[in-house]
Amino acid sequence: MDTAFARRQMVRQQVRTWDVFDPAILALLNELDRDQFVPREYAHLAYADTEIPLPHGQAMMPPLVEGRLLQALAVTAGDRVLEIGTGSGYLTACLARLAGSVVSVDIFDDLVDAAGRHVEHAGIDTVDLHTMDAMAELPDGPFDAIAVTGSIAEFDQRFADALAPGGRLFVIVGDAPAMEARLIRRSGDNEWTTESLFETCISPLINGGRESTFSF
Question: What distance in Å separates the CA atoms of residue 105 and residue 102, rounded to the nearest whole number?
Answer without folding.
Answer: 10
